Amino acid sequence: MSTDRDPRPEPGTRLTFRWRKWDGATHWEHDCVYLGSDRFGYWFGQPVGWRSIRPGREFSAEHPNVTLLPPSGDYAYTHNAAPARTKVYIDLAWDVRWSDAGEPTGVDMDLDVVSHLDRGIYIDDRDEWDEHRVAYGYPLDIVAHLETLAVDLEKRVTVGEAPFDAATADGWLARLAALDLR
């Protein structure tokens, strides 16, 4: 992004994380709060009751969660607080970044890395990935990069490498809990 101003708001600022699909169609929009940054990237939080919506579906967060937007812009990592059954959900993405409007945005690229208490750690939505990479004509270099990245992230989550470890997420969940968001 070529801008002279820092697009990041002050920690504690409410905003919307806006996802779209490769063709530009609206996808998920998550109400969240900017928490700050560390060596891994930018962190956002979503307290209990805050909304996530996409065409045809809406839900409110049942558990607090934090999301990391790394500088690479090719995934967004979400860690859900206990007692959530899905502990980790990583959306593989393209062009995840701060928008000119000062909010996080990105292209959801279908593949996800998930850590679920009952199902273990796995790469999800391969069927949607196969369908959309043909239908949308994903460039081959992006396909190769994201397929390799999915396998790498699955391994990193499995071994609990930071930032995919509980300690890193717990620190950001504590920061979220400390905010007065009334």
In short:
This protein is an alpha+beta fold and 182 residues long.
Structure notes:
Helices cover 24% and strands 42% of the residues. By secondary structure, the chain is α+β, with helices and mostly antiparallel strands. The chain has one domain (14-174): Beta Barrel (FomD barrel-like fold). It has a 7-stranded mixed beta barrel with strand order 1-2-3-6-7-8-9. Strand 9 (104-116) and strand 10 (120-124) form a beta hairpin. The chain is globular, with a radius of gyration of 16 Å. The mean pLDDT is 94.
- Unreliable segments of 5+ consecutive residues: none
**Main beta sheet:** 7 strands, mixed, barrel
What is the arithmetic mean of pLDDT? 94
With strands numbered from the N-terminus, the spatial order across the biggest sheet is 1-2-3-6-7-8-9
Shape call: globular
Keywords:
single chain; alpha+beta; seven-stranded mixed barrel; FomD barrel-like fold; 182 residues; 3 helices
Q: What is the fold's blueprint, element by element?
A:
Blueprint: E1 14-20, E2 26-38, E3 41-46, E4 51-54, E5 57-60, E6 65-69, E7 75-80, E8 86-98, E9 104-116, E10 120-124, H1 126-135, H2 140-159, H3 166-178
Parallel strand pairs: 1-9
Antiparallel strand pairs: 1-2, 2-3, 2-4, 3-6, 4-5, 6-7, 7-8, 8-9, 9-10
